[in-house]
Give the backbone structure.
Amino acid sequence: MLLLNMFGTDSVLNIKSKLSNNRTIVEDSFFTAPFKIVKPFYNNESNVAEVMVMSASAGVMEGDCYQINIEAGKASALSLQGQSYTKIHKMHKGYAKQLNVFKVQKDAFFDYDPKPTIPFAHSDYISETSCYLEQGSRYVYSEILACGREKSGELFRFRRYKNCNRVFYCGKLIFLDNQVLQPEIQNLSSVGFFEGYTHQATIAYFLDEMDRAPVVEKLYEILQSFNNVEAGITTTYKYGIVIRLLSNGSDYLEGIVKKLRKEIYNCSFGV
C-alpha cells in the first residue's frame, strides 16, 4: 500500500511478463506519472527482454512515493533498467519513499538494473525492496549510491538514506540487507562505512541451483583486474552471492558492475 502524504505524488509502475513462442513479452503494464516505459528491446545472446523506465520528473521530491511491482512469468527473462540517475532533492520536514515488489516465478529470470542514486543535501529517502523467488528462478540486482553532489561541496550532507533489500525463496526469508545512513550521527568517511571513498555499489545474484564456488572465483578474478576500488564478495545464507564495492565516481563503479553483470549472465545463460 502506498503512503499518504501531504506533499509529493504517489506513483505506480506495474509490469508483468510471460514467455510466448520462446520469447519474453510484456503481457501487461500500467504506470502513472512520472513513470513511462518504452517497448522492450532484446539481448541477442541471452534473449532477455530489456525494459527501460523513464521519468518525466526532475527527481525525487519531498513526499513522493514510488511503487514498482514486477512479475516475471514462468520461464520468462526480464530486465528493468533505469534511463538516468535518481536525484533526491532537498527536503524540509518530510521524506520520500520507494517500495519495490518483485515476483519471479518458476524458472524465470529478473534483473533490476537502476542507474546510480544521488542524495542531495538535506534529503531524506527510504527504499524497500522485496523479491519473491520460486524454484529455479534467478534474480540479479545492483545499486550505486553517491555521497551527494560532491563537486558542489555536498559530501554526505543528506539527512538520511535507508535501503532495505529482502529476498524470499518459496515464501521463506533467505536474505536481508538493511542499510541506514545518517551523516549527522555517523562518520560516513570512517572505517565500516565509506572508508574515505565517495561512492558505494552492490550487485547480487540468487539462484537455488547455483554451484557458488566457481562463480565466486570468476567474479573475484574480475574484481582483481581493477585498481582504486575496495571490494568484498560473499555467499549468503542460501543460494546467493553479494558483492559490495567502494570507490570514487559513479562512472567507474558502473563499469565494474557492468563487467560483473556480464559474467553473471554468462553463468546464468551460458553466453
